[in-house]
Amino acid sequence: MEFQKCWCFRKDVKHLQKKCKGRELEKEIEQYLEWLISRVPDFEIHHTILYSSSKFTLFKTRIRGCGGRGKRGGLRLVWAVNKRKTKVFLVRLYSKSELENIPTFELVEQLLKCVSDQ
Questions:
Q1: Which whole-number Å values give the CA distances from 104 to 24, 32, 59, 101, 110, in the listed order?
Q2: Are strands 48-52 and 87-95 parallel, antiparallel or unpaired?
Q3: In this predicted model, what pLDDT tens digit does every residue of 47-66 receive, in sequence order?
Q4: Using one digit for the tens of pLDDT, what is the confidence trace for 3-16?
Q5: Does residue 94 sit in helix, strand or coil?
Q6: Rounded Cα distance, 57 and 69, in Å
Q7: β-pairing, 87-95 with 2-5?
């Protein structure tokens, strides 16, 4: 499985890595998504689908936060997978305490820019 990290995701990880000392966020996320896509046949129903097209599906997933917070108050990962499930786009990673929500249209725009940059 191939991972494409969008510029905004890289920026988000750099910012959050300061708070999440001792964790390798990128590696942790890649391992989780690889496990999820390869081992859970209906993984789509366990995550919030933000957008779906003929080429990809955009998801938002809760991830354990930094500093002892659980999933509910923790991090949000916005990611997409192509329909063949061979490529994953890591779009955004943000702390729920810092940013409530990002409008879906902005996330789709960021994903489309990321796809076109490859």
A1: 27, 23, 10, 9, 10
A2: unpaired
A3: 889 999 999 999 999 888 88
A4: 999 999 999 999 99
A5: strand
A6: 28
A7: parallel
